[in-house]
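Worked example

This section walks through a single chain of length 530. The input is the sequence exactly as stored; nothing has been trimmed or padded.
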Amino acid sequence: MPEFTGQRDLQAYLKMFWRWKLLVIALVVAAPAIAYFVEHRKPKIYQAQVTLAINPSAAPSGNSVFASGNLSAIAAVVTTSQVANLAGAKLRPKVPGSVIVGEVSASANATTDFLTITATDQSPTRAAQIANAFAYALGADEYQQLVSSTDSQISAIKAQLRNLSRTSAEYAQLQQQIGQDKAQLQTESRGPQIIQAATPNYTPVGPHIRRAVELALVIGILLAAGAVLLLEGADRGLHSPDDLERLTSLPLLAAIGQGAFKGVSETDPADEEAFQMLRTSLTYFAAEERLNSILVTSPFEQEGKSTVATGLALAAARANVDVILVDCDLRRAGTSQRFSLADTPGLSSVIAESRPAESVLTDWKLPKDATGRLRVLPAGSVPANPAALVDSPAMRALLRHLESICDLVIIDTPAALAVSDAVPLMSAVSGVVLVARMNQSNRAAVNRLQKIVVAAHGRLLGAVATAVRSGAGYSGYARHYYATTHRQVKRHGRKVRADSASGLQLTQAPPMVGAKRGSESPTSDHDLSA
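Given that input, the structure is written out below as tokens.
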């Protein structure tokens, strides 16, 4: 997973999310859709409010919460079971307080000394009735406390009167007190004053579809981000040249675009330039030592190693290099098929039958602007034991001989993790080029191949990423730069063929056996398309 350190890493994160775009879209769309479906199925909720004024001075004395003037405490009394039961008895039909207490809430405004009781219900009329019932119940509860307090006082005075003489002055005073308490009970305000009674409000306050959808959208985005990061951490694939370079700690020699793997296309200068970049990278990354031979391999089949080997051979030959391309895949002979040399004698005949290498080398005509030379040594017939044939002194002697008659030998081998044919040659060549196809190769396979090369005492020159999609730093600039040239090529009608599975393909033509550098080519040229 890329570490965020700047703008370039932000682009890597964007690419990472783009790879999982279907999952991201699914989560971001599904979460709000589910929220909308759930909220839309909920019944509509209506709300009604009643406003009360609290007068602490009119409240009963003693420990009464109403006498304290604490509006928050009075608001808490609204949802008690005693008040709820009184409200339920007020409704028609009567209901238990426990049924409606959950539909009611109360809030206090300390500035105005107003208390607001809010009731919710699926019916606007029922909501208003419940709110008014609780307002009545709150006043009734307060009056009951007042009556209870007054009765307690009168009972205490009567207990004192039983111990006094009726003719005493104190007895007369207590009798007078009893009368005053009863009069006060008759004239006392019964409960809080209703400032505004609740009326039906036909505008629903719920469900909150918009709020639920917005919240679900945020949740969906967070889930998508978490899922992508989790899957990216568990993903063992390679998706970009940067992934390959970080994994192997090797120089990225070149990034070969998907255009090199097209079935039938016209010559694409951008693809040719990618192979020129590979040749240049090998030249300067290994400047301290001459490269006489290069082995091209990959973890598995169909990763582009034959395409890279062929493209590198062409690029080097066009740059004044005498190149011999050896098809060492004695099992499938992919390179030989590209050059239409699958049925001709080749490497197997040279090793098994001790034939001279020059007798099976095929000289291919290059474009007029090319200053080098390209010869191809096909695989030949399939031997009984290809691995033993490659791992033989005769193969090493042949390799030394080929290095002596040309500038550069490029060897295309089978997939290194599929068969062991390439392993014996890794220490016999000047260097090994590791090829991995984006979105197909996996990290474990590339790591395993890298360890095999090191264990075989091979020298890893670098890595090549194939099937790279256009993007900044890879093939996007080259395609834009060569757009005019490509259109000019189209106007001149230069048509070429490309192998549908691996890219580079040669037109069929009679082989030029034993041709020397600088010799004239026959009329039927071997033209190569990249």
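What to look for: Residues 147 and 185 are 7 Å apart (CA to CA).
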